[in-house]
Every structure is written in C-alpha cells, then in structure tokens.
Design brief:
This protein is an alpha/beta fold. It is built from eight helices and eight strands, in the order H-H-E-E-H-E-H-H-E-H-E-E-E-H-E-H. The chain has a single domain, classed as Alpha/beta knot, CATH 3.40.1280. Helix 3 links the parallel strand 2 and strand 3. The longest helix has 14 residues. Its main location: mitochondrion.
Length: 231
C-alpha cells in the first residue's frame, strides 16, 4: 500500500490522472494477468524504423575500441519469448535489437511485463527486408552468425559450438522463430551458425531449448569474452 501511494503521487506530479478502482477492474484491464495492484493506460509502443535510427552511442565509461553487438529476431511470435529476449539482451549489453516486421509479435503489454520493463527503456527496431539488411551489414564488415538448434539440418553454412566462437569484429546474432528456426534464406546470409552442445543424449522431442533461453546462453557465451572492451 505505501508503494502504491507513492506511485499515485508520482503520477499526479506528472499530470497523469489517478483513479482508484476495485481489484476486478484491474483484473479486466490486465486481462487476468498479474498486475500487483496498479495498471497504467498508455499508447501502444511502436517498433522503430531502422532508416531513422542513429548509430548507438557509447555508454559512460566504455572504450571507443569496443565491438558493437546487435541481436536480430526473425519471426518471434510469442510475447513471453519476445519479452524474455529483450530482458536478456538489455541485461547482457546488446546494443540494438532488430525484429522482422512481418510474422512477429508486436510490442504488447505482455511483452513489456515479460521483459521486466526493459521494453520501455530499450528501443526495438524493425526491418521489412531481413536478408537485404544482413547482406548490407556483411558488406560493411560485420560478422553475421545464425543459431541452429539442430546442426544436422543446416546446409552450406559452417556450424560450430558457441564456445568455439571468437568475437573480434562488429557482430550480428540472428535468432529464428520458435518452431522453425531460421529460414533457409536467412541462413544463407550467415557466415557461421552457432549451436549449444547438449549435456546428454537427448530424448526425441526434447532436443532443443526454448528460444529465449538459447539466446541468453549464446549471448552470455559471446559477451563473456569481453572483446567489446578491446581485449
């Protein structure tokens, strides 16, 4: 209750109207999802256009020699997965997240909740031409790596363990959809595919990780090299 009172004071100080309503009204506003006694009605948060984007600025204390790291999402459709991906990307220091505009989850309240608020402070950009975008970044000298849950299904692109990958240039990590993974067209724009080796022989049908969990493992494996600080 003291925290809700403080939130009400902060809202009033910013000119945001505060209404005190029964709990069932908040249940309806949040469509039955947990709300912790407070709901904020806000305009939808749009995906940002890459064409209007400025290059990410270095944060305080970071070396100019650091290598940028972008996360690209192809057809992520589950809002809980998208929120978890944004939370991990923000926590681990990813500079920019780019999502395909078509066949992807919009930035909904559920995404924001699953991201623990990261969606509100971390812009998500969109592209209508993923393969063209990746091709252009490769031409600029970026390394583009995809992710493979089943290495045996990948053709014409080298597959290595994430622990073998070395980060020494501007990098884009591309994550595919929950069910299908990366499309063949996107795979062919990747210089390498990264895989997470399992810790045991896997039972059929339990042979892959949740997409947000896999992304967290891959990003941590890459970021732990500390090459972004010029090491």
């Amino acid at each position: 209750r003291p925290l809700r009172a403080e939130l009400a004071l902060q809202a009033a100080a910013r000119g945001v109207p505060v209404l005190h309503v029964p709990g069932r009204a908040l249940d309806a506003l949040s469509r039955g999802r947990p709300h912790q006694g407070v709901c904020l009605e806000a305009a939808p948060l749009p995906l940002q256009s890459l064409r209007d984007a400025e290059e990410p600025r270095l944060r305080h204390g970071e070396s100019g020699a650091r290598q940028p790291l972008w996360l690209v999402l192809e057809h992520i459709q589950d809002p809980m997965n998208l929120g978890a991906l944004l939370r991990s990307a923000y926590f681990l220091g990813v500079d920019r997240v780019v999502a395909t505009r078509s066949n992807s989850c919009p930035l909904t309240p559920t995404v924001s909740k699953a991201s623990a608020g990261a969606m509100e402070v971390f812009d998500v950009y969109s592209t209508d031409d993923l393969q063209g975008f990746l091709k252009a970044k490769s031409a600029e000298g970026w390394e583009v790596v995809g992710t493979a849950s089943r290495p045996e299904d990948v053709e014409d692109v080298p597959v290595i363990s994430c622990s073998e990958f070395r980060w020494d240039k501007p990098l884009i990590v591309v994550i595919g959809s929950e069910g299908e993974g990366l499309s063949l067209e996107t795979q062919l724009q990747c210089q390498q595919m990264l895989a997470i080796p399992p810790g045991r022989a896997l039972h059929p049908g339990i042979d892959s990780l949740n997409v947000s969990v896999a992304a967290g493992i891959l990003l941590h494996s890459i970021c732990s090299q500390k090459r972004r600080h010029g090491d």
